[in-house]
Amino acid sequence: MVPKGTHGRKVVRPMKPRYITIHSTQNYSADADKHALALKRGALRAAKRRGGNRIGYLIWHFTVDDRQAIQHMPTHEQGEHADFDGPGNNYSIGIEMCEERGSNLNVTIDRTAKLTAYLMYTKGIPLSGVVPHYHWPRRGTSIPHKNCPHFLLDNGRPGRKWKAFQARVNGYYKMIQSSAVASRS
Q1: What is the pLDDT, as a whole number, of residue 7?
Q2: What is the mean pLDDT of residues 34-45?
Q3: Which of 41, 72, 87, 103 is such that its CA lies 20 to 30 A from the CA of 32?
């Protein structure tokens, strides 16, 4: 976890999550550990500006690679990962998928689907609330809809690949639900 009061958690804004936003790091030389260290050290800076980044740092809730998922901040705090001062930051849990060279992207995607399903279940977020970064327009940028996560979008937009990811998430979600029902019986 990034310590409260430092860098990306310098200002703590409470949140009741309604969405889960899926990202890709587009950083081919870093795994989840390296991203966690960068967040803890405050190395991921962003220009602080009105209508833009509110704290001068990037921060999200989880980073996933082909070996692990690391949590950086509580899921009841707002991050700075989606759309500046919009609903993407104000109401969504941010998950970044690593793309380090030599890693297994399919395993990373599958691990992300499992984490997403777990968060849906524990936070009461419907599948319709699982969105790509693309979903959130970024006011004041030349390209308002970011091609992110690029490997789950078709020609820069949600399509067949995104629907397949959602189906995978939903499959894991149903497994969690049926397991919970079975354990109560």
Answers
A1: 93
A2: 95
A3: 87
How would residue 2 be classed by pLDDT, with cut points 50, 70 and 90? very high
Contacts of 97 (CB under 8 A, 6+ apart): 22, 23, 24, 25, 64, 65, 105, 108, 109, 112, 149
CATH (domain of 28): 3.40.80.10
* Structural domain harbouring 23: 7-180
| Cβ contacts of 53 within 8 Å, gap of 6 or more | 46, 47, 80, 84
Our count of domains for the chain comes to 1
Of 88, 76, 84, nearest to 55 by C-alpha is 84
Report the SS3 class of residue 115. Answer: helix
Q: Please give the helix or strand (H or E) that residue 89 lies within, else none.
A: helix 87-90
- Rounded Cα distance, 80 and 118, in Å: 22
Does residue 1 sit within a domain?
no
In one-letter notation, the amino acid at residue 59 is I
Q: Is-contact 103 66, C-beta < 8 A?
A: yes
Q: Model confidence over 62-80: pLDDT tens digits?
A: 999 999 999 999 999 999 9
Task: For residue 34, tell me if it sits in a domain.
Answer: yes
